[in-house]
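Hi Y.,

Following your request, here is the sequence exactly as I used it, all 107 residues.
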Amino acid sequence: MLVFESEQLRMPVVKLVAVPTPDEISDLQKEYRRIFRRYQEVCGRSTRLNLAIQHQTGLQKKLLEAQMDGLQTGEFSEAEQAYEAFVEKVWDFPPEIQTVIYGWKEE
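Below is the corresponding structure, written out as tokens. Let me know if you'd prefer a different format.
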């Protein structure tokens, strides 16, 4: 008689995922573009502020650093959370659907 450890008998878990309709895909594409544009905008402002901080001294540098702190704890954090929430929402979709939603080009 053969005895198997429980680890050997485990089967992979198959997760069923509802595939979005073409209209839902279109809505997801629009949502992604909106979220990504906002994320790019905030990242661009952060980069410009960093460059400005590097070239300033004294009070002007302190003011720019305060703006950067506000940007990072406010808008940047919000944009990053929205982006991460969107990625989480589409994570389980098949790769072909994600490719369409994100606008990736297949090679």
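Residues 22-54 form the longest helix (33 residues).

Thanks again,
Q.
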